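In the laboratory, one determines a bound structure by crystallizing the protein with its ligand and collecting diffraction data. In a computational setting the workflow is compressed into a single prediction: the sequence and the ligand go in, and a structural description comes out. We illustrate the idea with manganese (II) ion.
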Amino acid sequence: MIKANNPNLKSWVEVPHGSDFPIQNLPFGIFKTKYLSPVAGVAIGDHVLDLVYLHENGFLDGLGLPSGIFNQRFLNDFIALGKKQTREVRERISELLQHDNTELKNNVAAREIALIPMNEVQMLMPVRVPNYTDFYSSEEHATNVGSMFRDPKNALLPNWKHLPVGYHGRPSSIVVSGTPIKRPKGQIKLGDDPPSFASTRKLDFELEVAFITCSETKLGSHVTTSHAEDHIFGFVLFNDWSARDIQTWEYVPLGPFLAKNFGSTVSPWIVTLDALEPFRVKGPDQFPNVLPYLFTEGEKNFDIRLEVLIEPERSQPTTVCRSNFKCMYWNVNQQLAHHTVNGCNIQVGDMYASGTISGPSPGSYGSMLELTWNGQKPLSMPDGSERKFIEDGDTVIMKGYAEKDGVRIGFGECKGKILPAD
Ligand code: MN
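The predicted complex, in structure-token form:
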């Protein structure tokens, strides 16, 4: 049992009802303020706890932390310390924030500096991302896409239930929540006409959750399903923006390319795998049986409720999708084991996105492609407008949280606004 996960813990820091960041969460991120260059912090309620200040002033003594470990532009060096040490840091921060602990609580001067109101900080990319992989692990999503573009009777390709399908994505264009995305241009082919060069008319989001690895492995070695979680620090929400018309023309035979690499948006706080322990659930039954290197047993999925909202330029946000991470057919252990079974090495800060997370009902589909069935069934917005895909000026907002025993472990927001093409 991880002590910091105890649902009975209360903090002396006020945590508003419904906050994503109670004392049981303590996600890690990188932030800056008007006065501070980028440093590491932890979210608690409506505040950010400055880890550089805590470390430099002795509040984290005895944990064997290298000097300057939090005074960095990214969390890579911190998470590379390994799960045992980063878990001790989270446990210590939990202690410092508990209502009956007076070390920081009664030190008014230290409190004033260490706790910064969230509305005074700017969140930055939490890690430098050396590699990004996108899986395709939701059976409902793969079935919907297969039905639309191939054959509803054979929607899943023959390999789908034997291996977690994925492709290598582009880390350079992964941006933190709040960064605008410009509508991409590319080759589009309509009907029998030759391809034209134009801005995409089918700009879409993909609702995903990504895990982040915290170790380096050797080229030629592999990670087994039973050890995969030793290599996973935590999770972020992930919007894999997609241009469907560019994708349709370019993706055969090597898969997505310019339809995806113009931008992906992540939420800024890394929710640790440790904080999600209480929310484990069993995944779907897998049939046919998987090959031995993909075998897992027990609760390897996580019950995380997910939501997507569209906020038009001059209107209120409206929810267009509610889904759940527990729907995934392939779990993260299987994804990492499969990724490395050929000897592919992993690196600190790698992001592995789940693939679009669609549930069984139409309101749970994780992309506009599925929600509007490729534009055939437009969504009505409260301002009277319709959406087949995402329009200029729209902001797409993703949210996610796990909840049980009165504890809500949330991710904050993953949002991005679409700007017109040049
Ligand atoms: Mn994707």
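The first helix runs from residue 51 to 56. Keep in mind that any predicted model is a hypothesis to be tested, not a measurement.
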